[in-house]
Amino acid sequence: MTTRTTQTVVRFSSAFPLPGIDALQPAGKYRVDHDEELIEGISRLAWRRVGAFIHLPAIAVRSSMQQMVPIDPADLEAALQKDLEQS
């Protein structure tokens, strides 16, 4: 099966929680990787998202420890929507 990873950057204007992580994440820009697989057997190219990962800490934060945390795309969208409503 053919797979691809696309990377986007999301911006939070205030601190936000992530499921499974105790501490709030600070405001800032974060890289997000979206893993997708090709849906075969159709007449045109189509991709299905099979996973998403957010890179911690934020892009501007200097840290000796970096991690890629799996995140449900729906949870990410909900956090971004909540952040938008608060600003």
Give a brief description.
This protein is of the alpha+beta class and 87 residues long. It is 16% helix and 49% strand. The protein has one domain (3-86).
Would you write up a description of this structure?
This protein has about 90 residues and is of the alpha+beta class. The chain has one domain. The protein is about 15% helix and about 50% strand. The protein contains 1 helix and 6 strands. The protein has one helix at about 75-85, and strands spanning about 5-10, 15-20, 20-25, 30-40, 45-55, 65-70. The strands form 2 sheets. The protein has a 4-stranded antiparallel β-sheet with strand order 1-4-5-6, with helices on one face. Strands 2-3 form a two-stranded antiparallel ribbon. It is elongated and about 45 Å long.
**Rg of Cα set:** 15 Å
Q: What shape does the CA trace take?
A: elongated
Q: Please state how the strands of the largest beta sheet are arranged side by side.
A: 1-4-5-6
User: Can you count the beta strands?
Assistant: 6
Return residue spans where pLDDT drops below 50 for at least 5 consecutive residues: none
Beta-strand proportion: over 45%
Q: Could you state the order of secondary-structure elements as H and E?
A: EEEEEEH
Averaging pLDDT over every residue, what do you get? 92
Helix coverage percent of residues? 10-25%
Number of helices: 1
User: What is the SS-derived class?
Assistant: alpha+beta
Distance between the termini: 42 Å
Largest sheet: 4 strands, antiparallel
* Count of all domains: 1
